[in-house]
Amino acid sequence: MSYITALRALAASAVILASGPILRPAVAEDTIKIGILHSLSGTMAISETILKDLMLKQVADINASGGLLGKKIEPVVVDPASNWPLFAEKARELITKDKVSAVFGCWTSVSRKTVLPVFEELNGLLFYPLEYEGEEDSYNIFYGSSVPDNKAIPAVEYLMSKDGGEVKRFVLEGTDYVYPRTSNKIIRAYLKSKGVADADIMENYTPFGFADWQTEVAAIKKFGSSGQKTAVISTINGDANIPFYKELGNQGFKATDIPVIAFSVGEEELAGIDTKPLVGHLAAWSYFQSVNTPENKEFIAKWRDYTKDPKRVTNDPMESAYILFHMWVQAVQQAGTTDVDAVRQAMIGQKVKSPSGFEVVMGANHHMAKPVMIGEIQANGQFNIVFQSKALPPRPWSPYVDANKGKTADWSYPWVCGGCNSPKYKTF
Fold first, then answer.
1. What Cα–Cα distance (Å) separates residue 206 from each residue in 7, 134, 180, 213, 282?
2. What is the model's pLDDT at position 25?
3. Is CATH 3.40.1190.20 the classification given to domain 149-285?
4. Do 3-144+294-368 and 149-285 share a fold?
5. What is the pTM of this model?
6. Residue 205: which of 243, 172, 246, 233 has the closest Cα?
């Protein structure tokens, strides 16, 4: 059955489902299996391994407290090795061979885009913990972090404000794949709406794992020498960040002159870098380890107790993965089954108190409202939070892209719609 056919079948049965749950009989198993789909080798291992470790901790915590629906959760860990086609192969094996109830994984948008057709074909559930470029909304994916509308755009607004230095010129520096290119397309459209000329925007991309940053950093310094305040918006991903930041230090790249604000660098990526030359450069996330809340102090303490490392860091993708996992657990408990269709419906409206201290709710568009925080790198590799917004509603389809006008995303009963362009659907 095709994806569209499946949606039509689901819509046709909606009235029956509304009168009471009619679920496929659950297969009797001794455990509830979940897939963990993160790169443990290759260029993205520097970022993704910590999420695998967090998921194993969360599974251990649930199992220690009695399990889920009276059963232990069994994690099935696979390594797609930063190889995008291998992500799709591993996802298919997890669903068809290992019979997992849900998959938690992916980091880059190229990995998510690669597995998306697999989850839609096989009607699996993917819980994706990273901020991403938007321009997507799938019936089979729950998105745990931000889109440009509630992260990148507010971050750029901050840079343009008095508090952010009243930046006039922008360098868009990214890894060459869909997330940086699409995000920068949206950022360019926003900057144009604010009167920023094309001549005041420099855009450059490098491959995954890129290491020779001398020429690129020198070009950024030259672009920023015009006398107008310039900032770098970095969507560099993976281990390429280590030589990039080292080269910033080598060339005496000061945040007071040309600040770099990163969308994909946090505490974990900085752990292996001498951050003293980087003090004052920025990152934008919805969570930092330095958030001062009782919930975060407990989150950090339990993480370090589990890892047996008193210096182990936490970061934003961990918080998103934490929220998604607990929402899934609550949805399974509410549905009384791991049946995909039942859990998917139960996910909408799930609430979890985040380590940041705010309550997060899963929306009908499979996204969550989250704040944006901007932090300055400190000499110890942590971030001093200099700006925090309220929780901002996510719009997967950016309003700054002309083709998105009228589009919305709503998977709530009775409509099933991702990227629809019709007045009968709700708007967000």
1. 39, 21, 11, 9, 21
2. 38
3. no
4. yes
5. 0.90
6. 172
